[in-house]
């Protein structure tokens, strides 16, 4: 059974809270979903190779950049707001790819935005907790990456 769109948008928003690029990139890179009967076939359009390449580069760049000691906290410089926008964009892209009507698209955007904020706080709390215990930051970052990538993959599966 396929998870409802708002649940998928919540999962993608949580991923965007951890890694902001995943909000828009995961739907761009994910498998093309089957459209429900009566829905627009255009919703299942596959982005161009150039768009997919830019999405891959953005995600890889963020994954690498997050491991650098000079990377600022996600809570600084409008980070939470950006991650909320990323989650909202991801929710919209999920909905559009499935040919969802406008009300469902708005619900997905709101779910993605709220989960983006929650994911930002949860990710920052996780990293702070492991730092207080004296654990190295790189394994914590890699664990967070794995969770974020798994959430994004689940949210965008066909």
From TrEMBL:
<protein>
    <recommendedName>
        <fullName>DUF4126 domain-containing protein</fullName>
    </recommendedName>
</protein>
